């Protein structure tokens, strides 16, 4: 018990002193997760709008599949991306395996179903009178979509925040396609796993506290957005 308490005190010291290694790992985690969330949002917002505003055979089935992938295991995504970018894979020639770029791609794949499903659900909750009014005033399809998206902007933002929380807390993808390379692809979750296995509780606890703090920030921000 004494060792755990001493490790906890040392972890606080590492955070307060802005230890370079701790800050580097935390900064890389934020950078990769924020980039993947931003890119996924740029893809998912227009794609979710296309799915919602157009009727086509199998639409309900597609939405059910998207919602099923909400709980997609991170190791499955990691395995898929690893096979895709390995030397024997179709994209092996890009030499992107074990780089931050492929980690961003993996996290994008992970959170895309979440963003798509939540944005479609948000669009479905818009009062039909808004659509009818916009159409009756002669709005084009793009303008109608813009009006509806404006109505659900806080729900869309909440979906993006939730996607970010999912991305920054995952470990399977980062470990399998990032390789946990020190100073290059090591992020909070993979560093915690490695340092704990080595018995270095101080660094593990420090990074764990930062991760919990980030989760708290995401949760508080999400609640504020939902209230609005």
Write up what this structure looks like.
The protein is an all-alpha fold. The chain has a single domain, classed as MetI-like fold (Orthogonal Bundle). About 80% of the residues lie in helices and about 0% in strands. The chain has 11 helices and no strands. α10 packs antiparallel against α11. The N and C termini lie far apart (about 45 Å). The model has no long low-confidence stretch (mean pLDDT about 85).
Amount of helix = over 70%
Number of helices: 11
- Unreliable stretches, pLDDT < 50, 5 or more residues? none
The strand count comes to 0
Q: Taking Cα atoms only, what radius of gyration do you get, to the nearest Å?
A: 21 Å
Between the first and last Cα atoms, what is the distance in angstroms? 44 Å
CATH superfamily: MetI-like
Largest sheet properties? none
Order of helices and strands: HHHHHHHHHHH
Strand content: under 5%
What is the CATH first-level class name? Mainly Alpha
Alpha-beta content class = mainly alpha
> What is the average per-residue confidence, as pLDDT, rounded to a whole number?
87
How many separate domains make up the residues? 1
What is the fold named in CATH at topology level? Answer: MetI-like fold
The 3D shape can be described as globular
């Amino acid at each position: 018990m004494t060792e755990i308490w001493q490790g906890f005190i040392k972890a606080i010291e590492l955070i307060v002193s802005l230890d370079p290694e701790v800050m580097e790992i935390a900064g890389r985690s934020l950078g990769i997760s924020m980039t993947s969330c931003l890119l996924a949002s740029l893809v998912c917002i227009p794609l979710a709008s296309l799915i919602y505003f157009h009727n086509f055979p199998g639409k309900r089935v597609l939405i059910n599949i998207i919602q099923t992938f909400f709980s997609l295991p991170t190791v499955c995504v990691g395995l898929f991306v690893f096979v895709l970018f390995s030397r024997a894979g179709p994209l092996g020639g890009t030499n992107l395996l074990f780089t931050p770029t492929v980690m961003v791609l993996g996290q994008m794949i992970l959170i895309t179903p979440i963003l798509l499903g939540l944005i479609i659900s948000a669009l479905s909750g818009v009062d039909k009178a808004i659509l009818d009014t916009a159409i009756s005033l002669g709005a084009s399809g793009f303008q109608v979509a813009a009006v509806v998206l404006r109505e659900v902007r806080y729900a869309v933002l909440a979906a993006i925040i939730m996607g970010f929380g999912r991305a920054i807390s995952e470990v399977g993808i980062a470990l399998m396609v990032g390789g946990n390379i020190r100073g290059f692809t090591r992020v909070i979750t993979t560093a915690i796993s490695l340092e704990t296995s080595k018995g270095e509780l101080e660094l593990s606890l420090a990074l764990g506290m930062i991760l919990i703090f980030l989760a708290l920030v995401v949760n508080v921000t999400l609640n504020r957005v939902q209230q609005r």
